[in-house]
Amino acid sequence: ELRQVDVVALSPEAHLMRVLHTGIDRASGGVYERPFLSLMVVDGDGKLARAEWFDDDREAEALARFEALARHDPEAPTELFANAASRLLDRAAHQLWAARDWDGILAMISPAIRMDDRRRIVRLEIGYEEFLAQFRMVFDQPR
């Protein structure tokens, strides 16, 4: 299970969130918790353009990446947590994912997406096709 714990930084097109991944370890049967930071950036068309993950103890690096990638629009709405990235996440998580609408999910992802997982244990940077393959594997899992 993924749970957003805290909003670290927010702009009209991006958010940096503290996330907690919890589950049951298949080998031991014990419960685990894995905190990390998630940076999501939406392009001008409202599609996911960038996804980066960082170990929880690398907040300074994650904030630097947020500053480098997020556009800061002084005319942006001031509604709490309302930005393109949060609207995209809400649509994906609550509407399309729940409806098992893969075509809708695909329509939300920019062909130019770059996913960069900077957690020490992963260290992976991939593009559109690889992202879709990994994302589809997660999408196809029951609950």
Low-pLDDT regions: none
Binned strand content: 35-45%
Number of discrete helical segments? 4
Bin the helical content.
Answer: 25-40%
Radius of gyration: 15 Å
Nearest-integer average pLDDT: 86
The helix-and-strand class reads alpha+beta
Task: Explain the overall architecture.
The chain has a six-stranded mixed beta sheet with strand order 1-2-3-4-5-6. The chain has 143 residues and is α+β, with helices and mostly antiparallel strands. 29% of the residues lie in helices and 37% in strands. The protein is built from four helices and six strands. It is globular, with a radius of gyration of 15 Å. The longest helix is centred in the middle third of the chain and has 13 residues, at 84-96.
Q: Which SSEs are present, and which pair or pack?
A:
Layout: E1 2-11, E2 14-24, E3 31-42, E4 48-55, H1 59-69, H2 84-96, H3 102-107, E5 109-117, E6 124-126, H4 128-139
Parallel strand pairs: 4-5
Antiparallel strand pairs: 1-2, 2-3, 3-4, 5-6
